[in-house]
Amino acid sequence: MAKKNDGFIMQAGILAMAGIICRIIGILYRSPLAAVIGDEGNGYYGSAFNIYTIILLISSYSIPSAISKVIAGKLALKEYRNAQRIFHCAFIYVIVVGGAASLFAFIAAGIPGLLVEENAADVLRIFAPTIFFSGLLGVLRGYFQAHKTMVQTSISQILEQILNAVISILAAYLLKQTVIDKDLTTQAIYGAMGSALGTGAGVLIALAFMWLIYGMNRKVIAKRLRRDKSGNTLSYSEIFKIIFFLVTPFILSTFIYNFSTSLDETIYRKILKLVKDVDVSQIATWYGIYSGKAVVISNIPIAIASAMSAAMIPSISGRFATGDIKGTRAKVHTAILTTMLIAIPAAVGIGALAEPVVSFLFPGQTSLEMAAGLLRALSITVVFYSLSTLTNAVLQGIGRVYIPVINAAVALAVQTIVLVPCLWFTELNLYSLAIAAIVYSLLMCILNGIAVRKSLNYKQDVLKIFILPAAASVVMGAAAYGTYTGLFSLAESNVISLIAAVIVGAVIYGILILKMGVLKRDDILAMPKGNKLAGMLERLHLI
Length: 543
Hints:
single chain, mainly alpha, 3 domains
């Protein structure tokens, strides 16, 4: 059961809900944005965004997780002065590293072929300043996460996504209008630049909000520092050494873990252009369908795992620092069970209802059939990426920070060996990217799972965590598909049929999970608002 002083499931729930809201906002604005910039513009945006993400990963993306881990460890030992010093040093770190990374991205974007193709260069330049501001935002988010409160981060994420959505569409439309008399490729480039402006605007509003919240807590922070009786104050040189040696493996792990997307895109573009002689604009259009539609949708449920991971790191680090291995194992079990109970039915659901989901989120698009097929192929990665993201956080939380680096490197090498011949010798085209994603995420699951078991002597309840949820999900998927097909044949309304299918599927899945005994009363009580939920289920005679 979750305790009041350590309700990481509650905090994960808050962050997960914010993540889902952000994903929904992201999906909703993608449709009008795609209508403005088209699949070709999506392709240029996706190409620049992948490089932006890699530079961000190297410079500052891992800061929240790394900082929350080290500060949480000090807070668990009541070393409040050291925790605050680490926070200050982290700011200096990201100012230097983030500033250099932003400058590099801006300059290197102008060198043809170095980071991106010529058509995506200006889009990457727009992204460059955002790298610096994201680092500052990451430090503030990591600071509050270390205190086991995700509310500030959650609100900032929602604000970020709202402004991102508004500015992306508005700027894309206005910039495209400035070149409306030019060719379609130029219009696509300017539209993609506008979308990149939205990303930067979102980060700025989130940074302003987090800084305001920190300022409001200054008196509380000062009071706590005066109560520090630890008598052990780290020097700034020691802190920078801690940050460097902690952040570096976080960066390497996250970088390699996410580099697969950019590497796959580069291989895809090179082989199609140089070997199969496909036009550059056609390559961008196809890739825009894959990255801007299929991948975007499949990433929605993965937000749950990302939220759970962010909430787990400070909690696991604190327990592990005090030697509570049993408590650490219990939290790992709860997090994996909760994540799989959501990820497995989500994977089955988007696989079974791929076409109506794509049609609902991207209405009127000519690429419906291709996007739906790719989404079906990617659906299984929802489970694999969710689990591997979570186990990455577990290993980092217990100090096994280099194991995810090695695992990610091995998985990256294997998926590349699979991808190249698929693209070169077959006509699978975009499906080759989906196959590579499946191979990569599956290997990460297996390798991380082995490492967690060895490190914590942790044994997964395979029946309860995987088999029973999968069985319930298959029944759910069949019921949802049948409901959609039946209603659509009568009403011919995609929206009504899809909503009804989702509701029917969710109810059936929930009943099956409870009746199969996957969720016990104690598991439900550990959830956010568990007491009320358990009471309601008892009245319905489901537990």
